[in-house]
């Protein structure tokens, strides 16, 4: 059900003056609900614009507790690839990494890193 706020403010309507506070930053929660099922640690969502959000920003937003929305000004395959990059990344740990064997040639590794847009692969 759509709810319309009775009062709405913009940045020009509010002025925050610096002052002493008894509230410590560590005691403040910025958590919010984006939807009934999606919680955010910080109330930030990046714009789904091609000059703003691709996988790098979406990863950075997720690491801080926000949400980065991948823009749609690309093919569906490329967009899915960007989403996959975000979902595969978790605090510097890559789950289900792309690997090569000791018999894989350097040329094959270079092709793989260019194709998958990654900087390195574990040899197992």
Describe this entry's structure for a reader.
The chain is α+β, with helices and mostly antiparallel strands and 124 residues long. The chain has 2 domains: 30-91, no CATH class; 96-124, no CATH class. It is built from 3 helices and 6 strands, in the order βββαβαββα. It has a two-stranded antiparallel sheet. A two-stranded parallel ribbon has the order 3-4. α1 packs parallel to α2. It is elongated. This is IMP dehydrogenase.
Instruction: Report how far the terminal alpha carbons are from each other.
Output: 53 Å
Sheet having the most strands: 2 strands, antiparallel
- β-sheet strand percentage: 5-15%
Strands in their spatial order, largest beta sheet: 1-2
Rg is 21 Å
Counting DSSP H or I runs of 4 or more residues, the number of helices is 3
Q: What order do the helices and strands come in, and which of them pair?
A:
Elements: E1 32-33, E2 39-40, E3 45-46, H1 55-64, E4 67-68, H2 76-88, E5 89-90, E6 93-94, H3 106-116
Parallel strand pairs: 3-4
Antiparallel strand pairs: 1-2, 5-6
């Amino acid at each position: 059900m759509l709810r319309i706020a009775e009062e709405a403010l913009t940045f020009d309507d509010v002025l925050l003056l610096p002052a002493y506070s008894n509230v410590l930053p560590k005691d403040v929660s910025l958590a919010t609900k984006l939807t009934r099922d999606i919680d955010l640690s910080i109330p930030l969502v990046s714009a789904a614009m091609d000059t703003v959000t691709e996988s790098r920003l979406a990863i950075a937003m997720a690491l801080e507790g926000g949400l980065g929305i991948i823009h749609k000004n690309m093919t569906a395959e490329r967009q899915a690839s960007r989403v996959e990059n975000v979902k595969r990344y978790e605090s510097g740990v890559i789950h289900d990494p792309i690997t090569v064997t000791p018999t894989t040639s350097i040329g094959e590794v270079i092709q793989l890193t260019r194709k998958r847009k990654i900087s390195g692969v574990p040899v197992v």
